[in-house]
Amino acid sequence: MLKRVDPLRKELKDLETKAEDTRQKGEEITKIIAELEASIAKYKEEYAMVISDASVIKNDLSTVEKKFLLRLRHLEKSLLTALNEVKGRILDNNREKIQIKKTNKMPIENSNSRPSDVPPPTSAVKLSGTI
């Protein structure tokens, strides 16, 4: 009977050892699972913060873009106004140059000049009558 009980005791002891090993592995796995769950929760919080920050950045970007476009339109108007002023000065300057050229082409009148419809005097003057 001892011969039959000894192998069973040995098998029982082996099973108890395996059960203890399995229990320890189970505890380790449970501990790892708890750590992973805590890590996942932490990552979820960080992700939510990143999403919130991204939303704030997106809103800031939109605000900056609107301000930029408004300023750009203002600068465009200022530039066009300045260009129109320069264009006006250039056109006025060109008109003055054209007027000066026209004035230079016209004959200058002085006290010795005659109107164009009066013929120039002849060198020989005929006197009527005898002396």
TrEMBL record:
Domain of life: Eukaryota
Coiled-coil stretches noted in the UniProt entry, renumbered to this chain: 5-53
Key word Coiled coil present: yes
Region spans: Disordered: 102-131
Keyword vocabulary terms for this entry: Coiled coil
Protein name: Uncharacterized protein
Organism: Amphimedon queenslandica (Sponge)
